[in-house]
Amino acid sequence: MPKLWNDTIEAHRQAVRDAALNTAAALVAAHGAASVTMSQIAEKAGIGRATLYKYFPHVGAILSAWHERQIDAHFARLVAIRDEPAEPEVRLERVLLAYALIHQERVQHHHDEPYGAELAALLHPDEHVARAQQHLHELFRELLADAAAAGDVRGDVDPAELATYCLHALTAAGGLPSKAAAERLVAVTLAGLRQPG
Amino acid sequence: MPKLWNDTIEAHRQAVRDAALNTAAALVAAHGAASVTMSQIAEKAGIGRATLYKYFPHVGAILSAWHERQIDAHFARLVAIRDEPAEPEVRLERVLLAYALIHQERVQHHHDEPYGAELAALLHPDEHVARAQQHLHELFRELLADAAAAGDVRGDVDPAELATYCLHALTAAGGLPSKAAAERLVAVTLAGLRQPG
């Protein structure tokens, strides 16, 4: 088959997958996992039931795939912000804020949807999550090492330990009510990273 | 009955309860929840099986009670440290360090015991945990407000938000390998709390 045809098939597969993931997550968040069936997902997504079963064996598998896609999208967002050209300190601050806002949006979403908290509880930490946490730690560690080399971050604590500090401190954004509060959290977290006077 | 006799009975009840909690938690951490029975717990704790059933209906109930006792003991430790007379900044630093070390010890314990992680996973966040989190937040908020009034902590961010920051930042101690690393984490977290220059 010519390459173009392969691309078309791949794009079609991706579109079917995406429709299944979006529909499943929205149905579970709105009605609870117990009431959502493969047939409903197929119907709402505009796919045949048999086709859906070719992609996923059950609702749980769709939700897992949705969760992986969310994690990958969040990570890609942080990488894109990191790669915008700027001074190390500015890049660090932008990534810290983006990470805080991801946490805030996520918790907000759990509150807004009737079964949002249930959906979150269904998504168990698995290997994909553990690997993503490692990549995240590595991304923060490198940013902090660059900023330390530029003299913008304290040099008396290993960048790996500072990365652990940042990743934990910023999850606090999940409990904060506004973007302004998330920005204050980033300012406080950043102040902890500065060279002691 | 005279008061002394009531005290004796109460002390006896407490001793039976404590023996059951300690034994159940140790057995589950060593052998896994699936293999631990009420009979084993009674035997190892030196209590009759029928007596144990008068206190707890099943192993899960004993583990829940054990978890509550752990949480209360941790909170009591922080309150005791808070109540030692000292300047607000010193009290704040001591409580931050104690909280970080509690997290570190807990995660360490999960790693040391063959089924320590399983035990931790069995202990679901419940109402008792949620209430304890609120009390913890209140304790930190008050310490931070005192230190802010004394000029030792930044006044540009609400003590409640700073408390949320501290509680999250310090959980990072769970991933740090040594007491020295936990102390560095406390130093970094405290630096975030200082009045910006």
TrEMBL record, chains A, B:
Keywords associated with the record: DNA-binding, Transcription, Transcription regulation
DNA-binding region per UniProt: 37-56
Keyword ATP-binding annotated: no
Coiled coil location: none
UniProt entry tagged with the keyword Transcription regulation: yes
Gene Ontology molecular function: DNA-binding transcription factor activity; transcription cis-regulatory region binding
Location of the HTH tetR-type domain: 14-74
InterPro entries per record: Homeodomain-like_sf (IPR009057), HTH-type_TetR-like_transc_reg (IPR050109), HTH_TetR (IPR001647), Tet_transcr_reg_TetR-rel_C_sf (IPR036271), TetR_SbtR-like_C (IPR049445)
A Pfam family recorded for this sequence: TetR_C_43
Signal peptide extent: none
Family annotation (PANTHER family): HTH-TYPE TRANSCRIPTIONAL REGULATOR BETI, HTH-TYPE TRANSCRIPTIONAL REGULATOR RUTR
Protein name in UniProt: TetR family transcriptional regulator
Protein's organism: Amycolatopsis echigonensis
